[in-house]
Design the sequence.
């Protein structure tokens, strides 16, 4: 048996995984990263438009700070997020971006002087301050009060990932490529690493570690149409679920991006709308102001996606051989702007559609984009139920995003969570020793070996590709943007059947080494379980919050549903997961539940909301001299690691 | 535009080095073309419906991650964004990228090559202060135009098409290749990297480096990101030639 030991094992080599590894290594602990492919090819590279951090250097970002970023993030989440986490996040994001600048990200910079921009379809001139010249600039994004999204053209994720990957290489952190974790190894409620399959020679290897971090990204590929990379299949979340001990949080919270490009479902960055792009219907009418006169195309993603579907349901969509769609118009931004700040998007349009976005409109419709749900963690990033198991980035439900993530907050989360969770991983390595017998390790390896043996010897059975396609169709048709009881019940039942069928997969190509069919056969039963968590959670949640929109329960119901869904699968033979709930404590919220400011406010209030509002008023009255930092500490004390406690400097404002 | 419903004729290289007694061969497949079909879609259809053992690599399928470089009708390119409609006679021959270790069929180990390249050029900011930086303070100011230029060079996605298209690489197995020069050019331009010309010379000042390029332009002709490879190579060569 091949066993590899390390202090900190990280599953996933994207931005979050790399940053956790760097943090642990900086503290003197050996880190080892497992990746399905070369780390620089991770889905992080596909993040285009930018990363939110309240640097406030550009003219339209003036007055921005942690407090404004916090408010936008909590509102964006439809009050579903963990406000302690949101606080830690907004305070650390400026540090993360500055660190990445020192590590080589060529962030776009402020140019002092006049600049022409497009706001609401009209040209405007803004004047950038000369004293800010050369500092990191930002662009506009949906659901934010300030221009806060820092960027490198529309290849932000790529430059961040390369800088982070380079840093990890400089620190000699090993990345084991083409390795897939297929099960976690655990004993007495403590996780000790993973059973890993070598995707080239098929060998099973036990990677044993004090701390194991899941940073495998999202589960967009549970859906037929997704902007996600083809490897975003949620396997990291699934192996956590399969322990029967770790829990997943808010799996039903799935974001649809307004501008997926037809027919391939590639992403048109939010930067397109942030920079002034508009959405048009089949009559070339700009419809978003009719629905959201205030934020228009830059309402939160969940809101824009729903309005687009609503508009198409009224017969206003354009028809094409690929189905119904709307148009994205960025023509008036001009060639110079598009070729500089939206060049990757332009390339996609040219190669995939044969369209030049400088002069033509782009066919778009909302498609699956992001998973707010994932491995449930405490603020430290550790699973509350399985010790030694950590998670960061999209794979985690650290719960920065609640029921809707703001554009620009995902790459920001990956690096910020990497920094913060990485410190807690190092703390964990400092006080825990490895205490696991080879018998236990062997037991877990043998289970996986047997499963693979069964797959390779079974003569007749289900086709894994077909099962996957059926699951993806069910999710797309019944667990999409608008949901209702009857669709969801159907989905839950149909997925139960698929779960059973997935137990008898048989292969045509019966070899244990490099074999794409075997890879699919190992993954598909795991993906179906995750899909069940999403569909079942969505069926049970009888309210609408953020991206979870129930046609039969259109109101946000704080009274009954201000709580996080927790899903686990303790009995492997059961055909449904176990669902419990974790209440969010209004009495501890820095920002008590309120109206998000879109459409009609039909919120059913929480009984504590008024109490908490009165309490906050009292605290503010009693501490009139407190500055914003002291006030935040009074309203929302957070357990942020010492390293990240410093205040952030801003141009023209210092550390205030 | 794509001709809906025509039959595409694929010839695909097949060889699995993991399998004893397997021999390299070309295998024909037929696929019915659909609107907007790319080689990504066609290959997945072949795998899911005709031959589940077919190996290839795709990740982002949007031309951003660099996984899917292969030789398409004789030219190295990204398969994900190559539309089948581009081929008038409907014949498409696919081979793995040469110059890299073969994993199987169309899948090659570019990762291993790129890791070695990055280590060789020390692909990171060389600045002793970078680790002791105070991230609470305003970041160091940078010239906006230089940062845009650095991004222009950093757009390389390490797909390996330039390596496969390079005749020098065929003659000199340790030739750094355009992808390596591009990376060096990126750090050479970046004011945050404090390496001197002499230090850069140590990395590339020989025939396996910048002086080995025969300027056959294969890299420039086949870079899917249209990066200014020859301009960068010429620039670096001039700078390195001036190092005493």
Sequence:
């Amino acid at each position: 048996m091949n066993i590899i030991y390390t202090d900190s094992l990280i599953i996933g080599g994207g931005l979050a995984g790399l940053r956790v590894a760097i943090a642990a290594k900086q503290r003197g602990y050996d880190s080892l990263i497992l990746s399905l492919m070369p780390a620089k090819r991770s889905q992080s590279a596909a993040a285009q438009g930018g990363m939110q951090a309240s640097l406030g250097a550009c003219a339209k970002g003036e007055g921005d700070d942690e407090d404004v970023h916090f408010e936008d993030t909590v509102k964006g989440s439809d009050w579903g997020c963990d406000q302690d986490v949101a606080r830690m996040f907004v305070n650390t994001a400026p540090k993360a971006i500055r660190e990445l600048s020192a590590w080589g990200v060529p962030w776009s910079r402020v140019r002092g002087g006049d600049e022409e921009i497009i706001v609401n379809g009209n040209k405007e001139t803004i004047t950038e301050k000369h004293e800010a010249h050369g500092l990191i600039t930002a662009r506009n994004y949906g659901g934010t009060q300030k221009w806060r999204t820092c960027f490198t053209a529309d290849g932000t994720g790529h430059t961040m990932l390369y800088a982070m990957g380079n840093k990890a290489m400089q620190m000699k952190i090993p990345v084991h490529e083409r390795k897939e974790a297929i099960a976690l190894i655990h004993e007495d409620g403590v996780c000790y690493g993973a059973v890993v399959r070598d995707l080239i020679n098929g060998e099973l290897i036990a990677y044993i570690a004090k701390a194991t971090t899941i940073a495998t990204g999202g589960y967009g590929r549970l859906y037929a149409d997704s902007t996600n990379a083809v490897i975003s299949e949620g396997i990291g979340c699934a192996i956590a679920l399969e322990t029967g001990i770790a829990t997943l949080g808010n799996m039903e919270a799935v974001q649809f991006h307004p501008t997926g490009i037809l027919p391939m479902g590639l992403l048109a960055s939010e930067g397109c709308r942030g920079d002034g792009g508009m959405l048009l219907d089949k009559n070339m009418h700009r419809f978003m102001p009719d629905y959201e006169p205030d934020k228009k195309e830059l309402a939160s993603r969940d809101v824009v996606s729903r309005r687009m579907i609503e508009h198409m349901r009224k017969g206003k969509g354009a028809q094409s051989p690929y189905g119904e769609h709307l148009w994205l118009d960025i023509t008036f931004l001009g060639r110079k702007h598009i070729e500089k700040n939206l060049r990757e998007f332009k390339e996609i349009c040219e190669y995939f559609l044969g369209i030049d976005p400088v002069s033509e409109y782009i066919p778009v419709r909302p498609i699956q984009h992001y998973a707010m749900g994932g491995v449930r963690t405490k603020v430290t990033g550790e699973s509350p139920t399985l010790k030694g198991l950590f998670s960061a980035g999209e794979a985690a439900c650290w719960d920065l995003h609640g029921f809707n993530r703001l554009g620009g907050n995902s790459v920001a989360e990956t690096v910020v969570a990497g920094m913060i969770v990485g410190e807690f991983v190092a703390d964990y390595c400092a006080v825990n020793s490895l205490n696991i017998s080879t018998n236990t390790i062997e037991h877990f390896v043998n289970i996986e070996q047997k499963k693979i043996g069964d797959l390779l010897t079974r003569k007749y059975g289900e086709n894994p590709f077909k099962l996957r396609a059926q699951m993806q169709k069910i999710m797309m048709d019944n667990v999409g943007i608008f949901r209702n009881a009857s669709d969801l019940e159907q989905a839950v039942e149909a997925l139960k059947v698929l779960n059973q069928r997935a137990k008898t997969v048989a292969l045509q190509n019966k070899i244990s080494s490099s074999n794409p069919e075997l890879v699919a056969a190992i993954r598909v039963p795991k993906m179906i379980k995750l899909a069940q968590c999403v569909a079942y959670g969505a069926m049970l949640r009888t309210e609408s919050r953020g991206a979870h929109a129930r046609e039969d329960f259109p109101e946000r119901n704080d009274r009954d549903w201000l709580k996080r869904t927790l899903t686990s699968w303790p009995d492997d033979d059961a055909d449904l997961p176990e669902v419990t709930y974790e209440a969010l404590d209004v009495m501890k919220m820095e920002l008590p539940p309120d109206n998000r400011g879109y459409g009609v406010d039909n919120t059913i209030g929480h009984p504590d909301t008024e109490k908490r509002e009165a309490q906050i008023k009292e605290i503010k009255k009693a501490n009139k001299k407190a500055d914003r930092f002291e006030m935040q500490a009074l309203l929302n004390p957070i357990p942020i690691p010492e390293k990240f406690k410093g205040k952030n400097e801003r141009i023209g404002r210092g550390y205030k | 535009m794509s001709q809906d419903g025509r039959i595409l004729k694929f010839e695909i290289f097949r060889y699995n080095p993991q399998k004893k007694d397997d021999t390299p061969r070309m295998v024909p497949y037929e696929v019915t073309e659909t609107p907007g079909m790319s080689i990504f879609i066609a290959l997945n259809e072949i795998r899911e419906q005709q031959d589940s053992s077919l190996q290839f690599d795709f990740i982002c399928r949007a031309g951003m991650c660099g996984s899917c470089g292969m030789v398409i009708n004789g030219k190295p390119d990204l398969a994900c964004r190559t539309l089948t409609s581009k081929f008038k006679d409907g014949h498409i021959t696919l081979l793995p990228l040469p110059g890299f270790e073969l994993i199987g069929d169309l899948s090659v180990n570019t990762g291993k090559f790129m890791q070695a390249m990055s280590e060789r050029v020390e692909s990171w900011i060389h600045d002793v202060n970078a680790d002791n930086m105070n991230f609470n303070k305003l970041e160091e100011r940078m010239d906006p135009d230089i940062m845009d230029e650095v991004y222009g060079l950093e757009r390389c996605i390490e797909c390996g098409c330039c390596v496969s298209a390079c005749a020098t690489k065929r003659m000199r197995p340790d030739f750094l290749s355009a992808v390596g020069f591009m990376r060096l050019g990126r750090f050479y331009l970046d004011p945050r990297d404090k390496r001197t010309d002499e230090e850069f010379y140590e990395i590339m000042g020989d025939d396996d480096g910048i002086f080995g390029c025969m300027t056959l332009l294969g890299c420039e002709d086949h870079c899917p990101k249209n990066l200014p490879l020859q301009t960068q190579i010429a620039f670096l060569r001039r700078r390195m030639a001036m190092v005493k």
The two ends of chain B are 56 Å apart (CA to CA). Chain B has two domains: 7-107, 110-241. The domain at 7-107 of chain B is CATH 3.10.20.30 (Ubiquitin-like (UB roll)). Residues 177-189 of chain B form the longest helix (13 residues).
